[in-house]
Amino acid sequence: MRIGLLYPAPDALSPANWSGTPAGLSGGLIQNGVEVVPISARLAPGIHQWVAVASRAGGERGAVADRMPVRQRARTRALAASIRRAGRLDAVVAMGTEMYELDAVLPEGLHCLTYDDGTLQQMWQHPDSDIRQAGFPSGHVEEWIRRQRASSRRADTCCVSTRWAAGSFAEEYGLPEERIRVVGMGHRPRFVANAGKDWNAPRYLFVGVDWKRKNGASVLESFRIVRRRFPAARLDIVGRAPAIEEPGVQVHGFLPREEPSAQKLLDKLYESATCFVLPSLFDPSPISYLEAGSAGLPVIATGVGGAGELLGAGAVVVDPKNGAEISAAMLSLANPESARTTGAVASRHAARASWDRVGGRILRALEETGAGSAVVDFRKAAQ
Length: 383
What we know:
Elements: E1 2-6, H1 21-31, E2 35-39, H2 45-55, H3 62-66, H4 69-86, E3 88-89, E4 91-94, H5 102-105, E5 111-116, H6 120-125, H7 130-133, H8 138-154, E6 157-160, H9 163-171, E7 180-182, E8 203-210, H10 216-229, E9 234-240, E10 249-253, H11 260-272, E11 275-278, H12 287-294, E12 299-302, E13 315-318, H13 323-332, H14 336-351, H15 355-367, E14 376-377, H16 378-381
Parallel strand pairs: 1-2, 1-4, 4-5, 5-6, 6-7, 8-9, 8-11, 9-10, 11-12, 12-13
Antiparallel strand pairs: 3-14
């Protein structure tokens, strides 16, 4: 089977896209015997520069400029051209559908599934989501939501990572339940050696780029409470955190996914930790929970969003705005036996959340659409 993997970036399969999700999904589909064809939105240099200038003509910048109509139209044309160049395809798996018009990208007769960790609608409704905190103009966001809604209705099936996300596609976007599939989220396993781990000295690991949304300040305050009981406790912080100089705390900064040396350091931090703590104010489906589980770590997870579904009893789910709950969870997992046994449960759940399993579930959803019964070479059809 030959499947186009569509992500609206110059390099669809770059590990820098969406926390490595397109790259991970590509690998998972390949493990299931699929030939993956990247469908990218690469503009010619001259056109790219013109579009960039035109999209900022009204003073827009950043994500707003990137989603202005002129860029959306250019991106739509580039993706459609990429599909034509791809030749014969059995289907397309599309992501980031608020950034282009999916109906205009897809040739008639080509099966399509989308893959998301939530709807923009449910994220826009939550005051602590990144899209709400960014302060985007409501009119622009409503247009992005319209595109995503239209794309989900154009697709044969909408695949999502959690039941939380599935509920929004049904309720906010009006999709019938039979066109929604919960296929889970994959991750890059952290194969670390736990045989010689010292579980007696609590060592917490926080990994979050967005210090505010990931609730870093509350984790730090709860750690201070823990350290009064356990003076040897440590807290390692990865991400764009403020400068922190206090006993037991070490800030490692941002560790890029695409840099081997940075990931080697992160592997060592997972290996030395006894607990992963990330009680985000809002989190749809954090891959870092699965990575922590693969390293045998118990996770202190947020109850806001779909994050709490990922690891079952391998996570302690807390109210992220209740500091007492966060500190109580950290104290409970300072117990060596509790940390070890809860981490073992997390490890079993993470093992079932591999990209090859996600790819297999997507293929089963695709089979239900009848994909493969009417395969077309869209490059030849366009001639």
